[in-house]
Write a structure and sequence with these properties.
mainly alpha; 13 helices; single chain; 74% helix; Serine Threonine Protein Phosphatase 5, Tetratricopeptide repeat
Length: 243
């Protein structure tokens, strides 16, 4: 499929997905069509503008997906040199620094500076605020953690982990009643997350709301309990079929 037929392909897929939104064949075709379009677009970008910051960023993402951290970092830096104000680049560099195995001792501070630089370019980057909150939480700097998690949750009201992080930081600050609203939101957004239920139960308990705490603790136990491990004798002699 040529790039010149991009609009035709998209319109065709829109029609199919509108008429048959859950059909496996349509979904399969959509996956392969978009994959083919993405591949051809990346090839065209590499051919027509190989030194552009977009091409450098695409190269970096490819290296990163392969675990080639140093090559990815070099490409991100080249992209940044081409366009210092490009949104997302500092965030990706910071994420890369935290992902590298055997990082240097000052890697956290390096990453922190990248996320702060990202927010100067894109103040609405909820991901950067969230990671800064996590770094502050790891340093047990609860006030900063609360500030960053709070901003992340306001920037992205569907960001369940941001609400959970905010609630955890408030619990660590012993601000138990204040922790309840964000943790209630975290539970609504991520009902299958045991940590959200446990922290909400803790906030309820420390706020004197025993009945609600017991309910959340029970949900947490139900989600985390495991089948008892079988002994070797049980494995060799399973129970007889009652039928």
């Amino acid at each position: 499929m040529g790039l010149g037929r991009f609009d035709d392909a998209l319109e065709f897929l829109r029609t199919l997905n509108r008429e048959f939104p859950t059909d496996p064949d349509v979904l399969y075709l959509s996956i392969h069509t978009f994959s083919d379009l993405a591949t051809r677009a990346s090839e065209e970008l590499a051919r027509s503008a190989p030194s552009s910051y977009q091409a450098r960023e695409l190269n970096a993402e490819a290296y990163e997906s392969q675990g080639k951290w140093d090559q990815a970092g070099q490409e991100y830096q080249k992209a940044l040199a081409k366009n210092p104000d490009a949104p997302g680049l500092h965030f990706r560099i910071g994420r890369l620094l935290l992902s590298k195995p055997n990082p240097p001792a000052d890697v956290v501070e390096q990453a922190r500076k990248e996320f702060q630089a990202e927010l100067k370019i894109d103040p609405n980057n909820a991901g950067a605020e969230y990671v800064l909150g996590e770094l502050a939480r790891q340093d047990q700097n609860w006030d900063q953690a609360v500030e960053h998690f709070s901003r992340a949750s306001k920037l992205d009201p569907a960001f369940g982990d941001a609400f959970l992080g905010l609630g955890e930081a408030l619990i660590s600050s012993r601000k138990f009643p204040e922790a309840i609203p964000p943790l209630q939101t975290a539970v609504k957004l991520e009902p299958a997350n045991p940590g959200a239920h446990y922290n909400l139960a803790t906030a309820y308990s420390r706020s004197g709301r025993k009945a609600e705490a017991d309910k959340e603790f029970a949900i947490h136990r139900q989600m985390t309990q495991k089948e008892p491990a079988q002994t070797p004798a049980q494995q060799e002699n399973p129970p007889a079929n009652p039928n």
